[in-house]
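note to self — DONT lose this again. spent like an hour looking for the file last time. sequence + predicted structure for the chain T wanted, 290 res
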Amino acid sequence: MFDEFGPEKIIEVYNPKVGMRGILVIDSLALGPGKGGIRMTPTVSKEEVFRLARTMTWKNSLAGLPFGGAKSGIIADSREFNLKKKKEIIEAFAEALKVVSPSQYVAAPDINTGEKEMEWYYKKNGSRKSVTGKPKKFGGLPHELGSTGFGVYHATLVASKFAGLDISKSSVAIEGFGNVGWFVAKYLSNVTKIVAISDSKGVIYNKNGLNFKKLAEVKKKQGTVTAYKDGEVAPDNEILDVKADILVTAAVPDLIKEGDVNRLKFKMIIEGSNIAMTTEVETLVYKNGI
């Protein structure tokens, strides 16, 4: 729905040759070009992209950053094709958005897109100012910082204080172990006990805590957290049934539905899948055109 804030533009693009179907919502240009990540899922919709774009409008404004709000989505299941095909789709999307990127839209990573996809996007676009989240060699932040996950980590610490929870004595469950969840787990494992983590294959749970380094190695080698030996395995949607003080959602959008309310036993829920952290470093990189 349109209101006094936006959205200013809704752009739908399609390239039948490579099977690319994409959506861009520029919610507000009041503070600068709209900034927001590219979400790549088979279910991403115009409504979902708009809601995320509006969130970016508020986040960039509250942070005092020279960006408006935007978000984009590519309707595709990246598990169904190889990297070559994914590259074709990302490049087709970047080509289609040249008319507004980077003048009105600055892309960034989101679900199923990361540094490599941002490199493909900016090279096809022709301007480094068209994206943030690029590889370090092209002016982006070092991947090991995991800026979005780092932001979710800090959001969890701040929210815990407001909720009166001692993070050092709390237990945490994390939904998702990808671009966001991996780094959330990395940082939180230094200050609290993580008892459950999920990915698309299932949930691994251990009430005594999971060893992040061992779990990360298992994920890297075997492709799923469920291969971790020291814990109980359950279907991925049962992350909502886990006994923990805090739940961090870091992958699936709208994970919790109305019918799930009575399942939840958590004291606090952090909606990590919609938290983004645009750092001052990347802002300066963008402003100076590096």
